[in-house]
Amino acid sequence: MTLLMTLLGAVFGLAAVTSFVALRGVDLAPWRPSRVAMPDHQIERLGLRLALGVGGGVFMAALTRWPVGSLLVAAAGFFLPTVLGEKGARQSQVGKVEAIASWAEMLRDTMAGAGGLEQSIIASAGVAPMAIRPEVVALASRLQRDRLTPALRDFADELNDPTGDLVVAALILAADKSPKRLGQLLGMLAESARAEVNMRLRVDAGRARTRTSVRVVSFTTVAPALLLLVLNRSYLEPYGTVLGQLVLGVVGACFATSFWWLARASRLVANERFLSGGRR
Question: What is the value of pTM for the model shown?
């Protein structure tokens, strides 16, 4: 019976993942291996997600021996930071756009002092905003041994930001043609980036109520279930059967879909990048 329940839980998990991929769609663009390492903050978030998911799944399995319930708790732990809203990630995105705007103005001012484009980039590496300083330092180092255009394309991939693509595209056009009006263009792009920062901050403040609602709904849904597991286990005994596990899987899938829609409603969808693929 335990083996059968485990197999049913695995089949349910596979079906849930397959259904999610089918509804979300798959990008059929050709895959290219990335040369950019995952940032430290993304590694830390992934480690936190894995810890919550594995810890929650193991705890649920030890407490109830329900395979489907363990999978649901593991999935809930993994996606919990997304459902509750990643404030640090949103602030990091806004800070990166602001840093790109400051760096564009820095290049404009340096070039106005009779500095060339490559020399201005190298000179800005040590004083670039902290949010993008590692990428700018890597760009300056790359310029010592590589041509400007390929180095800028790699820099755009490292930034991985639509606003950064605009600035890099302007630099590439200036490198291929003439940088006569590059200073004016960089100034306009900086103003546009700061306008985007202000827009994101206003939208983020407007969606704060939605994120609060997500937290309240999540707590009021999970807390009673945990209390029943701890204080009144006999009330949940029907879920220990095969049919109960199937019903639990359906109910869990419904709640998971609802939480996903709530989290999606509170998230700001970023613009897609247009300059990608590195060297060509």
Answer: 0.66
